[in-house]
Amino acid sequence: MSTDTTPEQPLTPGARRILDVASKLFYRHGIHAIGVDTIAAESGVTKRTLYDRFGSKDNLVAAYLNARARRWRETVTTRLHDAPPDPVARALVPFDALPDWLTPSTRGCGFINAFAELPEPDHPGQRIVVAEKQWLRTLFHDLLTEAGASHDDVDPLTTQLLSLHEGAIISYAIANDTSAAVATRAAAKTLITGALPEPAAE
Question: What is the span of the domain harbouring residue 77?
Answer without folding.
Answer: 62-195
